[in-house]
Amino acid sequence: MTPFELAEPATLKEAIALLDPDDPTVRPIAGGTALMLMMKAGVFRPEKLVSLRNVKGLTAIEPMPDGGLRIGAMMPLAALERSATVRAHAPVIPHTMRTLSNIRVRNVATIGGSLAHGDPHMDMPPVLIALGAQVVAASPAGERTIPIEKLFAGYYETVLARNELITSVIIPAQGARRAAYLKCTTRAVHDWPALGVAVAVEGDGASVRDARVVVSAATETPTRLAGAEQALRGGAAGDALWRQAGEAAAAEAETISDGQGSAAYKRQLVRVYVARALAAALNAGGAN
């Protein structure tokens, strides 16, 4: 690992001021669980890291007046796993943590960092997209709100500017929606997934009124599947509809080949796992 300067600002304004929009060797660091691995491998050689660990105001979990939930970007994933507030608002999040890497990583990795990193294999992005979540990002120009489904621009790429920081994640009120996340790994259950599928379904038990279907890891970016969502709307809840949605998802998803499997293999995973995730979401004892 090459030597680098470490800055440790105490405020958000100071942190943003330290970032240079024209210098790719200056980079913010949150938990650092992914970034440090890239640095050790020589993939990224920064000259300066701007640590966000001491920045005040980025670690709160706050219910909002409209029923939504605001989570500070520096909140460790393990804290979300243990939070009764998060569990009550979106139980799919602590459920997802059970197989998200390991407890050592979850103690350090942050929700904002997992989004800003832009890795399509991360577990949280598809879950948050299915929940309709947004990020609040701050820069010298002020704040803006970005739907998470529009955050990712490509493989390890986001729409964030180099001098822009995620400050919080906003999860809207879920109402009657039920959500689930399933993933398929080629090795240990907590390993990088070959496919991640997150769904959020609204219905009365007999029929589906609305749905969000999101796949990741098998695609270049976490991706909503509009065709699968359309196939679900107004349908009679049950195995036949789940299989129909799985077929629509497999036809729509632009799968890629990588170390976790071929594009054809991942397309078959999409077909099977979308149906399974939908059944889990509507099952009272499932992964919601």
Q: What does this molecule look like?
A:
Helix 9 (226-232) runs antiparallel to helix 10 and helix 10 packs antiparallel against helix 11 (263-282). This protein has three domains: 5-51, 2-Layer Sandwich (Uridine Diphospho-n-acetylenolpyruvylglucosamine Reductase, domain 2), CATH 3.30.43.10; 61-171, 2-Layer Sandwich (Uridine Diphospho-n-acetylenolpyruvylglucosamine Reductase, domain 3), CATH 3.30.465; 178-282, 2-Layer Sandwich (Enolase-like, domain 1), CATH 3.30.390. With 288 residues, the protein is an alpha+beta fold. The longest helix has 20 residues, at 263-282. It contains eleven helices and 14 strands.
Please state the overall shape, judged from the principal axes of the Cα atoms: globular
Secondary-structure element string: EHEHEEEHHHHHHEEEEEEEEEHHH
Class inferred from helices and paired strands: alpha+beta
Mean pLDDT rating = 94
Main sheet overview:
5 strands, antiparallel
Residue fraction in strands? 25-35%
Number of discrete domains: 3
The CATH topology annotation of the largest domain reads as: Uridine Diphospho-n-acetylenolpyruvylglucosamine Reductase, domain 3
Any low-confidence stretches, pLDDT <50, length ≥5? 284-288
Number of helices, where a helix is a run of at least 4 consecutive DSSP H or I residues: 11
Radius of gyration: 19 Å
Helix percentage = 25-40%
Order of strands in the sheet with most strands: 4-5-10-6-7
Alpha-carbon distance between the termini? Answer: 42 Å
Q: What is the highest CATH level, the class of the largest domain?
A: Alpha Beta
Counting DSSP E segments of at least 2 residues, the number of strands comes to: 14
Which CATH architecture of the largest domain would you pick? Answer: 2-Layer Sandwich
